[in-house]
Specification:
By secondary structure, the chain is mainly α. It contains seven helices and no strands. It is globular.
């Protein structure tokens, strides 16, 4: 179950028309579901939350991932709590801001999907990082 839910969170493309279809709601819902899985099934033996956190962190640290994958990684980490945000998201704020600015730069030829992703990441970061500062 975890790989399928994880795919819904950090996958590059979840629908045929990402600029029109609401794959953001799917990523948000899957993030909440993954947090519930971690809460209910994590133990010192299986380390579910540790492995899930690593999956999100790896997606966030990737230089070649699309912005939609960054959004999913941040959404997933956000659902795991404020301590996870402090440790895994805050150190990458500068790099994320640069990627957002590059996607929103009008002189850059980015796709509409990347622009929407940049706006959604910015909103998500404000929502998730503000309480832990």
């Amino acid at each position: 179950l975890i790989p399928a839910v994880g795919t819904c969170i950090v996958s590059r493309q979840l629908c045929t028309r990402p600029d029109h279809d609401n794959h953001w709601a799917l990523r948000d819902f899957a993030s909440r579901m993954m947090a519930a899985i971690c809460k209910n099934f994590h133990s010192s033996t299986n380390n579910v939350q540790t492995r899930v956190t690593k999956m999100f962190s790896d997606a966030l640290c990737s230089d070649r991932a699309p912005l939609v994958s960054y959004y999913g990684a941040i959404a997933g980490l956000q659902e795991l709590g404020p301590e996870v945000i402090k440790v895994f998201v805050l150190p990458h704020i500068g790099a994320l801001a640069a990627k957002i600015d590059m996607a929103l730069d009008t002189s850059n030829s980015t796709s509409r999907v990347e622009e929407i992703a940049a706006q959604n990441i910015r909103t998500l970061l404000v929502k998730s990082v503000s309480p832990v500062l």
